[in-house]
């Protein structure tokens, strides 16, 4: 996703030039205000992003008479179009609105000051002078009824997607790009990563024999049959999801303990099996444990990482066994494909260990069920499904417009496997706080200030039980949506009834798309959704001694 290297921005006084300039500056554009044609002749030498904001009225200071100003503007417009990769943005607004803005801000146009012209007459002359730019503009934005913040966000989205569009409504723009979702966002890193989960699941299916071949049967049988799950953040959540998936979904109960990497020093792992997950493989707390010999007492250390030559990768290749994730390096802050692949990998590792402990049948069943996952994901990545997700995203964005705090809840399998990660992704992608409510809605109070809730329909929960949960939510919360195979007469995203492992991944991927669209509906730029400044990850060594 590359921004245009050169932009020409024009519009009459009061149309929002200053507002849009602020957005361009925040996107990294150098602002250049050419008065004479010679300024544009240096365009080929400009290597950075730059935006021209022609100071047409300043040409009056250069001796160009008012009656020649139109001709001068046409020449300036013609030269601007010669600039490499130029995109012209024309801002417009209704004359009465422009006049009102001028009068309210006590700002006079250059013409009204120097030629003592009424606001409307001065603005009409401005629009006539700027007409050549309007005729060639790739982006036309009517700011008559747009707030400054929506004007900025509209320009940001249009430039990032590099599409010609004429609009006076941010909502209309979002509807337009979502109506052809996969073409509009094909170059957006986050969407590319979400889409790559189909390839990741196929790669997982092809790895079925790796777990049988690489897990040391003798060392596992010599262990004390205790399994410690070690990680931080989404990586630790992925391990925990795998445990609950096996327990609730497939009836495989193992003697597992969830240990944050920073707490490992308080735990005796002698002769135990340790499963360590870190996408980067260089998480500060895990590196600290490796340096301190924290994993050395284990009978077997099993590493799951996307970087084979990281600290975790090197340690496990030498002292235990490593299972690389083999997914793309994720650019946005929100991990998407690595989370799904981590869950699948950890599930296979733990199921294979369970098989060696005498609990047979589950390992092969996991892979048998997952054979349908690529096809199910392909169905999620269809325009038909996106249209439904977009409708629910719009509903939630409106419901959370004033209070960006809601609930996400489920019962059964998804309650323990998904809610924590789903809550984290909502913060990362949509900038909303969805408080997880686990297992049941019938214990504990609901916050009366919360306006929205997402209910995830679980394959292990009866329809009657789900209906009771949803009825209770509807009783207290104005906006409730459901995700699953049953439609309860409220905004709903369909997910087919399927096996536990498939249901978990389908819900996770669907929520990732939902949150992305909620971020768009809320007016966040693609940059803000993918690289939120205020949500930078903090990686520190353990503060505990």
Beta-strand content bin: 5-15%
Gyration radius over CA: 29 Å
CATH class (first level) name of the largest domain: Alpha Beta
What's the CATH topology label of the largest domain?
Rossmann fold
Relative helix content = 40-55%
Instruction: Specify the CATH architecture of the largest domain.
Output: 3-Layer(aba) Sandwich
Number of helices: 24
- Describe the main β-sheet briefly: 6 strands, parallel
User: How would you describe the shape?
Assistant: elongated
**How many domains would you count in the coordinates?**
3
Low-confidence stretches: none
Calculate the mean pLDDT score and round it.
90
Q: Give the total of beta strands.
A: 16
Secondary structural class: alpha/beta
Tell me the span between the first and last alpha carbons.
45 Å
Strand order of the largest sheet: 2-3-1-4-5-6
The CATH homologous superfamily of the largest domain corresponds to P-loop containing nucleotide triphosphate hydrolases
What labels would you give this structure?
single chain; 545 residues; alpha/beta; Rossmann fold; 3 domains; six-stranded parallel beta sheet; five-stranded parallel beta sheet; 24 helices; 48% helix; elongated
Offer a quick outline of the entry.
With 545 residues, the chain is an alpha/beta fold. 48% of the residues lie in helices and 14% in strands.
Task: Report on the architecture of this protein.
InterPro entries: P-loop_NTPase, RapZ-like_N, SIS_dom_sf. This is Glucosamine--fructose-6-phosphate aminotransferase [isomerizing]. Keywords: Aminotransferase, Transferase. One of its GO terms (biological process) is carbohydrate derivative metabolic process. GO terms for molecular function: carbohydrate derivative binding; transaminase activity. The chain has 545 residues and is α/β, with parallel strands linked by helices. It contains 24 helices and 16 strands. The mean pLDDT is 90. 48% of the residues lie in helices and 14% in strands. The chain is elongated and about 95 Å long. The protein has a six-stranded parallel β-sheet with strand order 2-3-1-4-5-6, sandwiched between helices. A five-stranded parallel β-sheet has the order 8-7-9-10-11, with helices on both faces. A five-stranded parallel β-sheet has the order 13-12-14-15-16, with helices on both faces. It has three domains: 6-178, Rossmann fold; 204-371, 3-Layer(aba) Sandwich (Rossmann fold), CATH 3.40.50; 376-535, Glucose-6-phosphate isomerase like protein, domain 1 (Rossmann fold), CATH 3.40.50. Strand 7 (227-231), helix 13 (233-250) and strand 8 form a beta-alpha-beta unit.
